[in-house]
Write a structure and sequence with these properties.
This protein is α+β, with helices and mostly antiparallel strands. It is about 20% helix and about 25% strand. The strands form two sheets. Strands 3-5-4 form a three-stranded antiparallel sheet, with no helix packed on it. A two-stranded parallel ribbon has the order 1-2. It starts with a strand and ends in a 6-residue tail after the last strand.
Length: about 130
């Protein structure tokens, strides 16, 4: 299996000097961010049917906003977290700065659920239409 890494030009320079032997590095566009539609078009040209995104919240939120995420995997940890104290760094989210209103938020159906007792749930979700009221 060939491993491809899509990144920015500066990311490609760092990867070429790093510990990824045999991986092919692809820069889908110029600039400081990977453009999601350029990434999807490149993957289609290669014949890719399934693409795993193990990116940070910024790229993931861009893919989600562009309607390019069909399925996702979520891990739910049974740990309670609260608001960060004043002056503390903001806690990261899976969606970066992306936010949705209730009427525009994407919905997903549960495909599978696995409990890793006692602390974690693993969900596989598929994007779906908004549920009908009533």
């Amino acid at each position: 299996t060939k491993v491809w890494i899509a990144t920015t030009a500066s990311g490609a320079r760092r990867l070429r000097s790093g510990p990824h032997p045999g991986a092919e590095v692809f820069v889908p566009n110029s600039g400081d961010a990977v453009e999601p539609r350029a990434l999807a078009a490149w993957a289609r040209q290669l014949g890719v049917r399934r693409l795993l995104c193990e990116a940070g919240p910024e790229l993931y939120s861009q893919l989600l906003s562009a309607g390019l995420v069909d399925e996702e995997f979520r891990t739910i940890a049974m740990q309670v977290v609260g608001q960060a104290p004043a002056g503390a760094p903001a806690r990261p989210t899976a969606y970066g700065a992306l936010s949705f209103r209730p009427e525009t938020a994407p919905w997903h159906r549960i495909i599978s659920l696995h409990a890793a007792r006692p602390y974690h749930l693993f969900l596989r979700l598929r994007r779906s239409e908004r549920p009908r009221a009533g």
